[in-house]
Fold this sequence. Notes:
This protein is an alpha/beta fold. The protein has helices spanning 13-17, 30-46, 58-70, 94-99, 104-112, 125-142, 154-166; strands spanning 2-8, 19-20, 51-54, 76-77, 92-93, 147-152, 183-189, 192-200. The chain has a single domain (2-86, 124-204), classed as Phosphoglycerate mutase-like (Rossmann fold), CATH 3.40.50.1240.
Amino acid sequence: MTRLIIVRHGQSEANLAHLFAAHTDAKLTEIGRAQAEALAEQLSKTEKIDAVYASDLSRATDTVAPTAARFGLTVIPDEKLREIRAGDWENLPFGELRVNPAYSEDYRMWAEDTANCRCTGGESVRELYDRVVTEVLEIAKRHDGKTVLIGTHWTPVAAVISHTMCGSADCVSQKLNPINAALQIFRYEDGKLTLEVSNFDEHLKNVGYVEPYKP
């Protein structure tokens, strides 16, 4: 049995500016860095982490780096854990995506039917699902009997949760809403991934939250 602790990155500069920054390397804000430290404090009290992986984008790596340091580990960067490839949406304000006719229909799908959305000129949610879930399951198999921390992004976290709910991308939706730096804890056993804890955020109460955008 493998335990996977999957964390969406802390508040980033793009979160604060309400930008759709997917592969843009948006940095953590001061709050995001505080969330990363709070995460490390929480996990150092409650877990024995054996390995740490993260998307190679700095906001994900920097979110789990303080935890890795507490356990004497090095973060393993993994490009397959990146956010969705946003194509023409990259680094645009959400407000523009809603109203610009070049993007608005595709973005309506993102808001209302996320599982079946493709970013204009970019990756589909189903393509991301295949990429991320395949990699997460490989990590789980590689570390049988261990506890692994994974730092990643909104859509990858939603994809893994969707896998536990319906075995496909069909359950990816805005309602899942993984919170910045909150804990999603999974058990992988006998080839099956099960969600045990969703959006645990007690460690963030004195740090602050990212207000979820309104797609």
